[in-house]
Every structure is written in C-alpha cells, then in structure tokens.
Task: structure prediction
Amino acid sequence: MHRNIWIAAVSLLSIGGVACSDSAEPEKPKEATYWQDVAPLLFDNCVTCHQSGGIAPFRLDSYAEARSWSVAIKQAVEGRTMPPWLVTSDGSCGEFHNPRWLENEEIATIAAWVEAGTPEGTPRDDLQVPMASEPGKGLEDGKSQIMAFATPNYVPEPDGSAYAKFDDYRCFLLDGSVDSKGGNRFITGYEVIPGNAAMVHHMLLMVVDPNGASDIPGKTNMDLMRAMDEASPDRLGWPCFSQAGDGVTIESLPATWAPGMGPVPYPDTTGLRVPAGRVLVAQMHYNLVDERVRGQPDSTRVRLRVADSVQREGFFMLPDEFLGSSDSLAPGKESVKYTWETDFDREMAALGVDHVDVYGVFPHMHELGQRYRLEFLDTADGVQCGAEVKHWDFDWQLFYFYERPYQLRQGTRVRVTCDYDTRGRTEPTLPGWGTQNEMCVGGMYVVLP
Ligand code: HEC
Result:
C-alpha cells in the first residue's frame, strides 16, 4: 500500500453540482452580550490558541481583548478562516472527529454582538482558560514513550529547476532509532515543529531499511544514501525530490507535516510498524521565494509517540496523479479544475486484504488552490463525499480524522478534484515539487482490517 505514494495515471472528469451549505442564515439572536453569549464561544473555540503563551499572535481571553479585536473576529468567523479548520463539517460531506467548525447560530451570535456595539453583559467568573496548545506538547497520553529527533542545522539553497525554482528538497538521516528494544515498534502519533517556519513548507518522515535492496541493482539503500550525501561534501544531507532520493526504497511514511498542523495522535489504537534496524529519513521542503529567508538556517524537531504494540496497523498514502502527469494548469483563469481518479485494488491484493479502513484524510495543494473535494466511488454505495474544502488556505493544512472510518473495498475508486485560481499566472503551471508548482494530493490514513 505504501508503495503507491506519488503514482500516476490521469483521468480528467468533471464533477457534479455541490450543495452549498454555509449560506444558510438563521435568525439572529437578540441582544448578545460578551459574558452571556460570546465569551463561552471564544473560550471553547479560540482561547486554546489565543492566550498568553498560545500559538496565536494575540489573546482573546478577556472582554477588553475580544472587544478590541471584534471586527476582525466577526470577519474571521463569518469567512470561516477561524478557527482554522478547512473541511466542511456540517454533515454534508463526511463526519469528522473533534471538528473545530462553528455552527451557523454561533457565528450569528458573534456577528450580532459586534453589530450591537460589543455590549459587555454581566461579568461572571466560571469560565476557565483551557490548556494552551503549545508546540512541543499535546502528544502525551500519560503512558506512551515520546522520542525526540531533529534535522541538522542546515542552510537551504534554491534548486533552480522548472519544477522547484525557489525550493530545496533535502533529505537527512536522523540520529537515533525507534527500535531501541530490538523488535518491532509502532509509531502512534507525531508532532513536527519547524525551526524556521518562514521557509519550511513540508516534511515527510520515512522509514527505510538501510540493508534493503534499492532500485539500483547491487546497491543497498544505505549505499545509495551515502553516495548521494557524499556527492555534496560541503552541504549536509542529499537532494531528494522523490521520497528519500532517487532509487531509495522506503517502507512507510509515518509523518506528513505541512504548515498549520499541530500534534497528530493517530486515532483509536492504531499505529505504524517500524521493524528492528530501520532508519528514519526526513525529507524537508524549504521554499526560498522570499529573499529575506535566504541564508538562514533551519533545524526542525520531530517528536514521535511510540508503543510496543497496537491493535491495528496503519499506513499513510499520498496519491497524486497530477504530479508526474504531463498536464498543466491554464494561466489567467478564475477557476481551473483538475480531477483524477484511481483505485487501490493492486495494493490491497498485494497485502492480501479485500478492504482497508480510511481513518482520515489530508487534502493538499499549493498556493493557487482554492477548493478541494475528495470522493469515494463505490459500485454498491454510489458516490460518498470524503472531504470538501471551500476555502483552501496553504497555511493551515491539517489531517482530518473521521468519526467512523470509511471502508475502501476492492473496486472502490477515489476521486480528487482540485480547483485553482491561476489569475496571477501568465504561463501554464506545471505539477511539481516547488511551492510555485501545484499538487493535488488525496492524502489518506488507512488501517488494515
Ligand atoms: C489552532 C489555533 C487557533 C484557534 C483555535 C483559533 N485561532 Fe485565530 N489565529 C491563530 C493564529 C496562529 C493566527 C495568526 C496566523 C493566521 O492568521 O493564520 C490567528 C489569527 C486570528 C485572527 C487575525 C485575522 C485572521 O483571520 O487571520 C483573528 C481575528 C482570529 N484569529 C480569531 C479567532 C477566533 C474568533 C477564533 C475562535 C472562534 C480563533 N481565532 C481560533 C490560531 C488560532
């Protein structure tokens, strides 16, 4: 299954009409006040980040603060840019675990309060500031071991090619290993903390068997990685657009990180196997289009939650059939749609299973992306909507886990439609690795039966 990453076979299809749901406007409640109506909403939905020491740039945990930000708050909740949560979660497309999606009534309450001139109401002291969401916390479950890794301090340089003009894709062998006990271990969650958030555009963590055969006859994976590393003695790591570098075979991909993602505990009692003797390779994508970041170093931290056993094994897949195709996006258009479709029959047959459970999805495009849709096409169940993004935001890319996993069977097809705004471009946009290229990834976390 994990070998399916980045495989291609294109089909261009159009999608049918999409029910629009965030335009429904319920009646506005009368006389919303801060303490009685708005504060409970902010404490529940905003203050984990918007507090002293939180990840947001300002606090929203007092009347004075909320009042001074009120116009921006109204705008952010009405536009659904805050709380950060891109997939539609009103039940019209998939049911997600712990959605940060506000109800239409809640948005109307906040709007009514702002329109009424932010009345204070009667102060109360029963509202608790929730625990801050802070980098470096949030994976702990009180029983699992957390292991810390880091990429070396590295100063990236632009690749310069058409596929990654302003980008450096660099792979590093991480110090340390997951299998300290010499047997199988399982990764059950991860957190990635970019050292230099202005340039780190993604990280993929890969499990590689150093003694395993690479795609080059007679060479092990370690032979290849060492040779690529030594080819640039003045720079750390090696170039790697495709996974862990040309010819290196990877076993699995336990962590995918993109901007905005916090800690990712895998759902239920699932985890990703790391057999004894494996090494971890991090693929870092540095984007250097902003000249101010050039010459700066990065060292990115990776925290892994590790267990000796799990109930069921999972895999991450990042299929993107746009990447590797000879298609491109026409310039100067308000909307350019790209659709691809595939099944996973071969991968399931190779694993000897007739279905897998899709536990979660990871929509991914670059900066031209504006809308996104992932669907499951099943002969028995028809078309099931798996994820819909109406307002794509490159800076908030999350993994979305389902309330109940979707059963992907032999014959089920996955269809992904990406919609791009190319008005800022005068040339066709090629699929590719650079942030200024585009991707259309149907990322999924699947679990074996
Ligand atoms: C997961 C953390 C998180 C949560 C939850 C969150 N915010 Fe934010 N918010 C941020 C960060 C980080 C920024 C600054 C970067 C950005 O704009 O994306 C921000 C920026 C903002 C801004 C500045 C303008 C804008 O849209 O970027 C407003 C207003 C805002 N948040 C309001 C809210 C409100 C209201 C809620 C709750 C309904 C909320 N936020 C929930 C993290 C969060």
